[in-house]
């Protein structure tokens, strides 16, 4: 269930985080702070598009596969193909080398297919052979809509009401302003025209 997933996440995260950070994580999950990022990854995966019948797949410089044994073959000529664009929110496996071939894994964490790919890709990333990027992907997402906090719509209504204005008074005030401006422009102090400044 979703609740058991939630408890498992908190349990595993508790091994690395303090009590204060755990409370922050609970708050972030409650307001669905990461849902827009997950939804963005889902949309990117749909645009790839994913190979049919695959719950997890990798993209290596525009080449797709959902078979872990094909990764080595696709990496051979990867640098001759264009590199993919990486987003700010992408999850990169921590390595010092950033110029290697980029392997993007689209998978759902906790599934068997994710484990198969992650084992191979993490080993290659540790050897600094590749740049390993994970993007969340669910093969069959829920049909129900996602409700997000902090996203609103503002309606601005412009007033189109006609207002009558006496033009004679406006002209008189404009003329007096022009005269004052002319006087200011004429006055200068040690060569500085303060009216223009």
From TrEMBL:
<dbReference type="GO" id="GO:0003980">
    <property type="term" value="F:UDP-glucose:glycoprotein glucosyltransferase activity"/>
</dbReference>
<feature type="domain" description="UGGT thioredoxin-like">
    <location>
        <begin position="1"/>
        <end position="145"/>
    </location>
</feature>
<dbReference type="Pfam" id="PF18400">
    <property type="entry name" value="Thioredoxin_12"/>
</dbReference>
<dbReference type="GO" id="GO:0018279">
    <property type="term" value="P:protein N-linked glycosylation via asparagine"/>
</dbReference>
<dbReference type="InterPro" id="IPR009448">
    <property type="entry name" value="UDP-g_GGtrans"/>
</dbReference>
<protein>
    <recommendedName>
        <fullName>UGGT thioredoxin-like domain-containing protein</fullName>
    </recommendedName>
</protein>
<feature type="region of interest" description="Disordered">
    <location>
        <begin position="174"/>
        <end position="197"/>
    </location>
</feature>
<dbReference type="GO" id="GO:0005783">
    <property type="term" value="C:endoplasmic reticulum"/>
</dbReference>
<dbReference type="InterPro" id="IPR040693">
    <property type="entry name" value="UGGT_TRXL_1"/>
</dbReference>
<dbReference type="GO" id="GO:0051082">
    <property type="term" value="F:unfolded protein binding"/>
</dbReference>
<dbReference type="GO" id="GO:0036503">
    <property type="term" value="P:ERAD pathway"/>
</dbReference>
């Amino acid at each position: 269930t979703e609740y058991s997933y939630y408890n498992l996440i908190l349990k595993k995260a508790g091994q690395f985080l303090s009590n204060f950070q755990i409370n922050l994580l609970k708050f972030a999950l409650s307001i669905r702070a990461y849902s827009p990022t997950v939804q963005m990854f889902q949309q990117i995966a749909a645009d790839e598009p994913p190979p049919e019948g695959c719950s997890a797949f990798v993209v290596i410089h525009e080449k797709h596969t959902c078979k872990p044994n094909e990764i080595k073959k696709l990496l051979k000529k990867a640098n001759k193909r264009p590199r993919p664009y990486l987003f700010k929110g992408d999850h990169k496996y921590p390595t010092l080398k950033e110029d290697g071939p980029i392997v993007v894994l689209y998978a759902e964490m906790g599934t068997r297919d994710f484990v198969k790919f992650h084992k191979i890709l993490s080993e290659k990333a540790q050897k600094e052979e590749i740049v390993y990027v994970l993007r969340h992907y669910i093969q069959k997402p829920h049909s129900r809509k996602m409700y997000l906090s902090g996203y609103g719509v503002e309606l601005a209504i412009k007033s189109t009401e006609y207002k009558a204005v006496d033009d004679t008074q406006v002209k008189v005030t404009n003329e007096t302003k022009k005269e004052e401006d002319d006087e200011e422009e004429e006055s200068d102090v040690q060569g500085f025209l303060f009216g223009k400044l």
